[in-house]
Amino acid sequence: MKELVENFPEMCEQALRLTVPKKNLKGVKGMLVLGMGGSGITGDIIRDCCDVRVDVCRDYKLPKCDPETLVIAISYSGNTEETLSSFTQALGLKNTLAITSGGKLIELARSGKIDTIQIPSGMPPRAALSYLLFPLIKFLRQSGVRIEGVDEAIESLKSIAKKTKRLREIGNGIEGQIGIYCPPGFEGAARRLKTQINENAKTLARWDSFPELNHNEHVGWENATGKNTVIILRDSGEHERTTARIEYMKEYIGGKSKIFEIFSLGKSKLSRELSLIYQGDLISIFLAEKNGVDATPVQSIDALKEHLSKIK
Ligand code: F6R
């Protein structure tokens, strides 16, 4: 897993070279991404980084969507039952796309003549983010959806890969209950860090975003006890009132929690979001090392999938 995470910038470049279908999306008013876990996060990133409305569905049931919506099913394995179920309900719609390495999703897409991006197999889904995301960005851009900053994002990732000392210090410094806070618009990055800490470091974590957390989570700190760590994702484009809230919060919880901050890199939203994601992925690997656990296997997810496969 560590090698895959370290190679993320190069994998993004390779992923961009994949051939993707071309579609005219001029009339498309919004997107609905169907996907779970390490695949579904792709939808959150697209939502955070493009001007078009994007919703992410993590359910068996396809939500109501108008005929002008582009529905994108993303499942790395192609066998995730929630995604297969919701996508089956979308098959009659005008604009659909499937992204997968194979499995039942590729069969479903082929039999329904659905545009498909097939990506290389053999990786843990969450380590295949480069392949799940960059060919989709390529597809969207060549189909008329504006997502800027691809080259800048890859340069930012490469510069992060060269300097990981601080990220290792953060991974080593994490203790107790873990909270991840982000400015609005970076929910994908915050969710990704939470899930990477869960799956790579085998550790519980929660995430929330400013300013919303000041209206609820904030109060929970009144009774906080024990060890706590908060990682705050910072962005140069934060609203000044959000910055004031973050600074207040650092003072307010400082006596009860360790606080670490990581900062976004670049001008484009894609670079800023992915730079936070990549720093978070590396932190989760360093935390796994500190915890003495193997970052790769996700035995409890596998056990549940196995259990559910026996229930009809
Ligand atoms: C495992 C992982 C999981 C999976 C999820 C859905 O590495 O990240 O969160 O992504 O169980 O499976 P796929 O991605 O195959 O649809």
Question: Overview of this structure, please?
Answer:
The chain has 312 residues and is of the alpha/beta class. It folds into 2 domains: 2-147, Glucose-6-phosphate isomerase like protein, domain 1 (Rossmann fold, 3-Layer(aba) Sandwich); 152-291, 3-Layer(aba) Sandwich (Rossmann fold), CATH 3.40.50. The chain has 13 helices and 9 strands. It has helices at residues 2-6, 8-16, 37-49, 81-90, 103-111, 129-142, 150-162, 165-173, 187-201, 217-220, 240-253, 269-291, 299-309; strands spanning 30-34, 53-57, 69-75, 95-100, 115-118, 177-182, 206-209, 228-234, 258-263. The strands form 2 sheets. A 5-stranded parallel sheet has the order 2-1-3-4-5, with helices on both faces. A 4-stranded parallel sheet has the order 7-6-8-9, covered by helices on one side. Helix 3 links the parallel strand 1 and strand 2 (53-57). Helix 7 (150-162) packs parallel to helix 12 and helix 8 (165-173) packs across helix 12. The longest helix has 23 residues, at 269-291. The radius of gyration is 19 Å and the shape is globular. It binds fructose -6-phosphate (F6R). Fructose -6-phosphate binds next to helix 3.
